[in-house]
Amino acid sequence: MKEFTISLFTEDHIGILNQITIILTRRQINIDSITASESAVKGVQLLTIVVRTTNEMVQKVARQMEKLVDVLKVFVHTSEQIIYQEIALYKVTTKGLMSGNIIDHVVRAHHARILEVSPEFIVLEKTGHKTEINELLAQLEPYGVLQFVRSGRVAITRQVKELNSYLIEMDEANRYKPETAEVLN
Amino acid sequence: MKTDNKKEEKTVQINGHEHITGAEALLNCLLEEGVDTIFGYPGGAIMPIYDKLLNYEGRLRHILTRHEQGAAHAAQAYAMVTGKPGICFATSGPGATNLVTGIANAFLDSVPVVFITAQVVSGLIGTDAFQETDIIGVSMPVTKWNCQVKKPGDIPGIIAKAFYIAKSGRPGPVLIDITKDAQLEKLDFKYKKCDYIRSYNPHIPLHTKAIESAAIMINHAERPLILAGHGVLISKAENELKAFAEKAGIPVALTLLGLSSFPSDHRLFTGMLGMHGNYGPNLLTNEADLIIAIGMRFDDRVTGNLKKYAKKAAIIHIEIDEAEINKNVLVDIEINNDAKEVLKSLIPLVKENSFEKWIREFRICDKTEYEKVVVPETKPETGDLKMGEVVKMVSDLTNGNAVIVTDVGQNQMYTARYYKFTQPNSLVTSGGMGTMGFGLPAAVGAKIGCPDKTVITFIGDGGFQMTVQELGTIMHYKIPVKIIILNNSYLGMVRQWQDMFNSKRYASTELVNPDFTVIAKAYKIPARKVSKREELKDSLAEMIAAKGPYLLEVVIEKEGNVFPMVEPGSSVAEVRLTY
């Protein structure tokens, strides 16, 4: 079992997320995190899904995802092959945090940001990897964490070839039709 | 058909385009795609489409089945024998959900069927309205693609896309769900066939390097074996397969759905693969040093235990669906493309060869199988009738030229084993899904698809009762199909497993059956029941000669078992010939 980040470029159609999760559900693969946004190419959605499974299995499901009519391209990466971040928000009691006298340490050592301060609570923000985010959470817990939320992973690949060049290649391949090719019948 | 109140409505032209309703647009799209036959069943939400269908009499023929599942199977069988996509209509809610078994069946066997379901008016979607069901959600895992249409103007584009996706690449079923308001509202109709979708690429450039490597492996192999499947028939590569096998001298084994893609009387033909396949191709899969898999997907019924499958062989996989490559069996050379295109490039690269010693091993296996299984099954002299002898006799009487439809279970395996297929696409069966009840409605679709051929269906007494209502369709349209019920008063295949693996504990497999000939006669279908060996040939000849539909019930020995058999979990090399 290993952590993989699956980046899917898809058409912006309703139901595509459902089609993708069905493939993971059938193979009993749990989604650790998921994010969706428009990619750098207009009209193309980028889904970033983090899963834990075997290399063999992630390749199989990636091929099944790429087979979906509305999916443009699927990339599978290990965590070493990508640059990624997650963001977390922490709502902590003001009383606790101030009495602990650690606010200064938290902000500096963890590169966290203070988003809001009120007499009742303080909201902190931290960007980083899951382990770093959890480290801060553990540190804050004794002072009374009222709410905690961590986002899904956003990832950028290190590969040089970008989606646009794949799109152009796919377009050319798609326009290629063998002379004898008749669509069935 | 009586249509007293049939009033042709005037078509208004705006900017050179017809101003018509969504329902008419759909029917026009079907005409544009060359459709002439629809299988279906009406209901509330789809009424606007059926209403317009009356105006298309003579151009679009609608076959009213007696259940939506029947329409789905009939449309699939029609597609399998004609090579054209099947078309199937159903209404919203239960109409749509009744299709699901048929959709899944077409999906697993890669058959192009365009399913059109109606949906409640768009304003009611999501409110649990009467006969509303989320058929898009329900059918998502079993369709190649599906889409809901809420605006009439979207109908032509979506239908064009549906046909393109269903037919191209690895074919499969698509489902279009059209709301009632989209059927009723008007649009300016124009139609353009689809031949391009950015995110979907069925035309893959040939990977010549992989083909060259494959040729080198083939030219150096000593015990090569071709495993051909449904993909050969789908890509119409029967001639290329024959030319390739003959030039390279390589023996050919077929999957269940690959049957009829290679002549069964050919000297290189070794039989069927899989759980109830022939002895030679199963046993010798594990002796081959090279396997060339063409248009097949290494289904578990073909491979048996994967850990002990073809361990001495290098594997070349020619397959149009990339997701099938390395899914079950890790391969050495993958050629992700259309079987016909690949074979055409491969043939000039392989040397003329023959493997007489290797082929002799298959013949030795054949001899063993013949003595231990085939003779007792097809030439018994005493005792009750056997399924094998019935199928063999039908094969002889029709010279292997009929279109054969089966249900699922023992009847299916005996048909696959003992009918000698000579014509491509002459077997219609439910492979991947194994749907009992497929046989009767599929026979309807097959006969409508090829009216000039003799269509015979073999069905067990269990499966027949699952879709028996389609006798009504046969009566209504006078469809001259020949129905053979192989009646052993058991759910035979399950009983066989109980016999072999559950110490003969026959849990819920014995059937108390009605008189099938009386049922047939209620539908005005001539019928005969036969149980004596001396009457078999005569009754089969009478059935084949009959002008209209005919039902022949053959009383079969109660506890016959199909052999050879690769038991679940066993290696193909452990194929058993007897108990």
Give the tags.
heterodimer, A: 185 residues, alpha+beta, Alpha-Beta Plaits, 2 domains, five-stranded antiparallel β-sheet, four-stranded antiparallel β-sheet, 9 strands, elongated, disordered C terminus, B: 579 residues, alpha/beta, Rossmann fold, six-stranded parallel β-sheet, 17% strand
Describe this structure in words.
The complex is a heterodimer of chains A (185) and B (579). Chain A contains 6 helices and 9 strands; from the N terminus they run βαββαββααββαββα. The model of chain A is unreliable at 178-185 (pLDDT under 50). Chain A has 185 residues and is an alpha+beta fold. Chain A folds into 2 domains: 2-82, ACT domain (Alpha-Beta Plaits, 2-Layer Sandwich); 83-150, ACT-like. Chain A, domain 2 (Alpha-Beta Plaits, 2-Layer Sandwich). Chain A starts with a strand and ends in a 10-residue tail after the last helix. In chain A, the strands form 2 sheets. In chain A, strands 5, 6, 7, 8 and 9 form a 5-stranded antiparallel beta sheet that branches. Chain A has a 4-stranded antiparallel beta sheet with strand order 2-3-1-4, with helices on both faces. In chain A, β6 (113-117) and β7 (121-128) form a beta hairpin. Chain B has 579 residues and is an alpha/beta fold. Chain B folds into 3 domains: 12-189, Thiamin diphosphate (ThDP)-binding fold, Pyr/PP domains (Rossmann fold), CATH 3.40.50; 208-361, Rossmann fold, CATH 3.40.50.1220; 384-556, Thiamin diphosphate (ThDP)-binding fold, Pyr/PP domains (Rossmann fold, 3-Layer(aba) Sandwich). Helix content of chain B is 37%, strand content 17%. Chain B is built from 23 helices and 21 strands. In chain B, the strands form 4 sheets. A 6-stranded parallel beta sheet of chain B has the order 4-3-5-6-8-7, with helices on both faces. Chain B has a 6-stranded parallel beta sheet with strand order 12-11-10-13-14-15, with helices on both faces. A 6-stranded parallel beta sheet of chain B has the order 17-16-18-19-21-20, with helices on both faces. The model of chain B has no long low-confidence stretch (mean pLDDT 96). Chain A binds chain B through residues 10-11, 15, 18-19, 22, 26, 59-60, 63-64, 66-67, 69-72, 167, 170-171, 173-178, 180-181, 183-185, and chain B through 82-85, 112, 136-137, 140-141, 144-145, 164-165, 167-168, 171, 195-206, 234-235, 321-323, 325-327, 338, 340-341, 344.
